Amino acid sequence: MGPEESRDDDLRTRLHAMESKLKRMRDQRGSHNEAARRAADSRNSVQEQGRELRDSIKSKMEEQKEVRAKAKFHQARRDEIQKNVRQLISRKKGRRDDGPGKSVVIQLSETMGEIEKIENRIMTDGGLSLEKENNLIKKLKSLISRREELIPSVEEHQIISIDLSDMDESIQRLRAEADNEHQKMIDQNKLADEIWNDIKPLFEERDFLRGEGDRLHSIFVSEREKSDETHSSIVEMLAKVNEIKDEIKSQWLERERLVRDHNKSVREALKTPDQDENMVDDLSKRLIEGGSITFGGTVPPSSEELEPSNSNKKTTRRLGTSRGGKR
């Protein structure tokens, strides 16, 4: 085996080994891509569960917020009613409270009582002077205006009206209503606590899904990085494989050229004169110029050969060699 054939075998051996390694690397890259795809699918599924869970938490939080708002509403009504009770008790004991903190219910009851008294006086007191009557009418208009201002506030808080002429009965009614509002407040807060107890496990599950999503995303990123690294190695290996293939092809083309040149030289050496185009052209030219041409590879006979032979002269035939004396 010549050195060129040995080198060719070495290149082919290297090429086979590299192509086998390329196949393993491609399989490895495919394995990393598949692992990344599975991690991405799992991550997306977990994230979708997380989104649905967050929507559920948000809905329950809104529900709890509404319940808490109802509890606060009942608490505010309870506090207002209890304030009315305290002011009625103080009024019953003879203490009047004309400060800004007076209950709107008491203010409305007092205003309506004043309106009723003035209307009765105007209608029944015949000894009123014109000036006094005008003053009472002016005060009545002011009280009616005040009453119209107080009524929306009382209706807004849904506070029961009271009768100042029967304070004991009004106090008892207000206390019962305050107790009722207090119980409603407790019930609403209890319901809000139950909703919160339902929400707490959802927060734990949400945190778990968030952590699981982060873990799966890390796996996805890691597998993609491994796939990219393997792909880079494949690209480098392919460049080397192509170099070896180019070298093998170059050697094959060179051997083919040598064989072709050798065969051509052999064919040229084996050509007869009639197959040699150059010789044919040369002979044709000589014929045209009037020269002589000898075919068959013979030469013209000499002048001695053209002389007639002496028929009487005998030709001596030699056998063997004439070295030494006759035997």
Structural features, described:
The chain has 327 residues and is mostly helical. It has a domain of 208 residues: Helix Hairpins. α1 packs antiparallel against α4 and α2 runs antiparallel to α3. The longest helix is centred in the middle third of the chain and has 103 residues. It is rod-shaped, with a radius of gyration of 64 Å. The C terminus is likely disordered.
Task: Briefly characterize the structure.
The protein is mostly helical and 327 residues long. It has helices at residues 3-92, 104-124, 130-156, 167-269, 277-288, 303-306.
Low-confidence stretches: 302-327
Percentage of residues in DSSP E strands: under 5%
CATH class of one domain: Mainly Alpha
Q: Give the oligomeric state.
A: single chain
Please provide the count of β strands.
0
N-C termini distance: 60 Å
- Choose one word for the global shape: rod-shaped
Q: How many helix segments?
A: 6
Write down the overall mean pLDDT. 77
State the major sheet: none
Strand/helix succession? HHHHHH
Helix content: over 70%
- Annotated CATH topology of one domain: Helix Hairpins
Features:
single chain; disordered C terminus; 79% helix; mainly alpha
